[in-house]
Amino acid sequence: MKILSLMIMLVLSFNQLATAGLEKTSPTNPTELILKEVKKKFTVYNGTLTAPDPLTHEIVKIPFGYYRTSVGKEETAPLVIVYPSLSDEIPLVEKFIAKMLAKRGYNVMIANLSEDISDVSRPITKIDDFFLRSTANTTQLLDEILKRPEINPNRVFAIGVSLGGIRAALSLTHEPRITAGALYVAGGDLPRIFAKSTVGLIRNYRYHWMKKLGLGNVVDFEQHLRSTLRIDPLNLVGRRRTSEVMMVMGLKDRKVPYSNQLRLWEAFGRPKHITLPLQHRLAGASFLLNIGRIESFFRTFN
Questions:
Q1: What distance in Å separates the CA atoms of residue 14 and residue 38, rounded to the nearest whole number?
Q2: How many domains does the chain have?
Q3: What is the pLDDT of residues 145-173, one digit of tens each?
Q4: Which residues constitute the domain of residue 155?
Q5: Which end of the chain is flanked by fewer CB atoms within 10 Å, N or C?
Q6: What is the CATH number of the domain that holds 207?
Q7: What pTM does this model have?
Q8: 276 φ, ψ to 5°?
């Protein structure tokens, strides 16, 4: 009974915090799209959404990328939200994903990061804010982007790699307008991932706080995070049908350990998956090879 009460508390907290301030009046014409590149099969825009920050309520600018497809005879096309990983710049993998999908008839929105997860100036007790803000930003972006006449609002998908996959998993649990999602090398049990990941930025973040808090080892660091980090996809996956998720996992991954990927897969109810005997980067980049399987998965929701 205690576990059930905790789960209910987490879900309610997530809903309240992730939407905090969204009811505040947004500026007139909040979305700005600047033409970046015109290709035969798609057009690329740099976008900015001016909106209230979901936690501070201050008016901020939320960056995003938009790839408008020119493929197909239908008046509308599906939208795929692509979640980048650690950088506030759009990594090459996510750019390739966007281009490949746009060439195949999908509109694509790249949900850029508005802050750095490894920012040590943010108190470690506020690490939840990163995930809450990221998830709320997706809702804010969807509110605006779905107004575009070329987008089919009934076919919205999510794709994320690494931290992007974790962000996509959280958005799936929170945002009912997302039809389904494909998660690449994403995991659950965030305190364990922060304690074990070999990603340089995360490792430096870990050692900074271990030193500052006087923690002698990563086990103590993990336990400390368990007392402060409440948001985790493992606590929220029950809000999605297993059939609405597909996962790609890396058996030799040490950046998001395979054991954590497996935990997320189990929590989602063992959805469709591809397990590759690869390390993190190669497994994450495998989208370029298995895009056909992802498309087949998305087409099941026609």
A1: 39
A2: 1
A3: 999 999 999 999 999 999 999 999 999 99
A4: 2-299
A5: N
A6: 3.40.50.1820
A7: 0.89
A8: -110, 140
